[in-house]
């Protein structure tokens, strides 16, 4: 270890310790101060918001008490560091650890390619905080650590494979664990489906309600049964959050459906079938008619049994995403009954948003406002907030300050109504990253969204964009590849292709950026955000004819486009290395400076 390059070394395996280059311990005495340092060291960028740290270490105290305790822990750390107190930096919102001056023993173990059997020390062994939020965080980090040992280097590209193998869905530590977190404190799965409400009137109208049949499980032991319940819970969560439907577990028997017809408004149901065979499990998801069993859609995926039983569903989560898209399509063609048409407003509005034109965004906003009058929902407010990011980003409205205020108000309302809605968390996370540059806070929202619903492509996609804004395009590319797996059949696939184009362009992979961008452009030929990157990537590829062609199209869409105007728009990431690549390409293509 180069002492000048890494003057500090942190031991996370076994008892926590922090030593300087001379081997002198500078470990704070307080266990919570030690935990705070470990949490910063294990975060993606060495930083966490004060709110996040307070929630994890002092979740049982009032906000004022937790804030005071955090300040004391920071003082304890600075006191133990002495003259090197600038290793830890804090402002009113965020706490940073200067990871450029620090080496972790976990990184050295991974670089040495030691097998799991050779590593006997537990991550943060013996640290006793006695806070349930910290215990949840520590359990997740230990799972991540064992997976790093199982699957190799932390920087492995996350690229799920279609054919089963030991490393199917190899996942880097860039990405949050995708197991179902909906467990009680006893560790038993919480059955979302059975706890969801039956059909009910909302504001005088009926809400869409569908049935989720009991799963068919073949060849599973106890671990398989628990994993099946977790997977079923993810299906219910995706439907409730993504579509706003009610879900029933159909606890009554099929012969009595006619007696319960008022409880179900959709004449279809979903059923999960799991077949365990050796070290593999075949996952099948069927959408069929509730009475005559006619199949409307069927999807299947085989994955490693051990992974499935650990709650690491990997590529199988794409089945859930596809099922939600199929249900949305079915609802659109069925929404002719006046008593149900109101509940289709949200789906219609979302589809309009992703058409991206000024008129479509205005139309989507009207439908969402109508939906609020019918039934205020967390996701409705979140989509209204999300619309503002398009209006600002595509420069549809000069009153940016007013739009940003509205975005903030809608985002706050969305989380007040339902802080556990995975769609709302993702959309609000994007608002805070794109409009406000609050990357730590936004990252927490994305991670929570993904833990609640790893089958939501939009959350992964917007999280990838956060990494673009934060100057980490390589991580964004890894996520964008995974999004393409999850959303391969999505009606909004072009949006995910756009993210891959942006991330690849910022990372300097212009061939990949052009391929993804031109695929997306077939669906949205006038998407100015996409055109900017195609101009730049073609120029960097020395295809000036292609670059100028796309520049002309960009100027036709955004008539006053210039580099200075672009910089003045407050667009994130322009101050990053990738942002400079983007601007250099635009200039090379002949874009106006002012």
Automatic annotation (TrEMBL):
What Gene3D superfamilies would the database entry show?
A: Tetratricopeptide repeat domain, Winged helix-like DNA-binding domain superfamily/Winged helix DNA-binding domain
SUPFAM superfamilies annotated for this entry? C-terminal effector domain of the bipartite response regulators, TPR-like
Q: Where is this region: Disordered?
A: 158-194
* Organism from which the protein derives: Rhizobium laguerreae
- For this entry, the protein name equals Tetratricopeptide (TPR) repeat protein
Q: Mind telling me which InterPro entries this protein's record contains?
A: AfsR-DnrI-RedD_regulator (IPR051677), Sig_transdc_resp-reg_C-effctor (IPR016032), TPR-like_helical_dom_sf (IPR011990), WH-like_DNA-bd_sf (IPR036388)
Superkingdom of origin: Bacteria
